[in-house]
Amino acid sequence: MKSILFLGALLATLPAAAATPAAPAQTRSCHLPGVEEALRCLTLPVPLEPGKPATLNLHVTIAPALRQGARPDPLFVLAGGPGEAGSDVLPLLSTAFRRVRATRDIVFIDQRGTGLSGKLDCPSDSDEDAQLSDLEADAALRRCIAASKAPFAAYTTAAAARDIEAVRRALGFGRINLWGGSYGTRLAQAYARAYPAGVRTLTLDAVAAPDQVIPAGGHDAQAALDRLFAQCASDAACAHAYPNLRGEFDALVARLDAGPLTLNLPDPRTARQVDVTMTSARLLDTVRNMLYSPADARRLPFLVHSASAGRWQPFVARRNLAADFAAEGAPATLLHLAVVCAEDMPRFTPALAAADASPLTRTLADRLKGLCRAMNVPAVPYVAPTRIAAPALLLSGALDPVTPPRRAQDAARFMAKAQLLTAPNVGHGVSQLGCAPRLLRAFLDRPEASIDGACLNEIPAPTFQLGSAGPQP
Question: Which domains does the chain have, with CATH numbers?
Answer without folding.
Answer: 28-214+383-458 (3.40.50.1820), 218-326 (no CATH)
